[in-house]
Amino acid sequence: MQPKEIETVALDQLQQLDRNRQVFVELRASMMEADQQDTREFQNQMRTAMPRLQSSVDAALANFKRNRQKAPTVNLHEDNATDELEEAERAAVQADRHPPTFACAGGHGHARIRKRRAPEKCEFLEKLGVEEGEVGEEEEEPQEVQERIRQQNVNMRKQIEGGIRQLQQARSNFLQIIDELRHLPTCPPRRYGYGAVGSDTGRFMRCAFCRADGKHYSDSCDEFPCVCAPSYD
């Protein structure tokens, strides 16, 4: 292969590498634009979700305050029930006539109060748990979406940067090969008319094509003017 052909092939390869590099650069710009678009969409979602989240928190706080305001009333009922129970026990001790009846009445009264309080407590705890769960889900969902988008962008950026590094390494390898080929020793061209024997030592040098000695140099052989088919007979 001639040096010109090598340079032509190497030039084509370099042009192809430049085109590939341009494609990767455009792809990277497109990915950055997509990343910015995702960021803008996420910010818009956050702006939309924040009022709903704030309203949910406000509603939860309002329910919590209302339930705290109801708590003293429940405690008052408990105190009244306790007083009634103590009164019934004192009356039972003093009268000592119908202790089972008073005891049962007091016990049933206390049980009725407990039964009445139990649904209220359960309902309050369920409401509070549901509201806290909704608030937690609204807070966690945008964070998960943002983390997933960020991880996808990081992976894609790594792939693009890896492809650019490979192209740069391939270009460097081609340039190194071209430099090595340029510095390889080459045969001198056959210059017709300049092959006369001009020195005593040159008279004993054989022609590389017709093997004649003392007549001419290899670059002026008339018997084999083409270097493609030399004869060593």
Please explain how this structure is put together:
It comes from Haemonchus placei (Barber's pole worm). This is CCHC-type domain-containing protein. The protein is mainly alpha-helical and 233 residues long. It has helices spanning 3-95, 99-182. Helix 1 packs antiparallel against helix 2 (99-182). Mean pLDDT is 69; it is low at 98-109 and 229-233.
Write the layout of secondary structure elements.
Blueprint: H1 3-95, H2 99-182
Helix pairs in contact: 1-2
Concise account of the structure shown:
The longest helix has 93 residues, at 3-95.
Calculate Rg over CA atoms.
Answer: 49 Å
User: Sheet bearing the most strands, described?
Assistant: none
Q: What proportion strand?
A: under 5%
Q: Give the oligomeric state of the chains in this entry, treating copies of one chain as homo and distinct chains as hetero.
A: single chain
What is the average per-residue confidence, as pLDDT, rounded to a whole number? Answer: 69
The structural class is mainly alpha
The N- and C-terminal alpha carbons lie at a distance of 26 Å
Organism: Haemonchus placei (Barber's pole worm)
Protein name: CCHC-type domain-containing protein
Please describe the structure with a list of short key phrases separated by commas or semicolons.
CCHC-type domain-containing protein; disordered C terminus; 233 residues; single chain; rod-shaped; mainly alpha
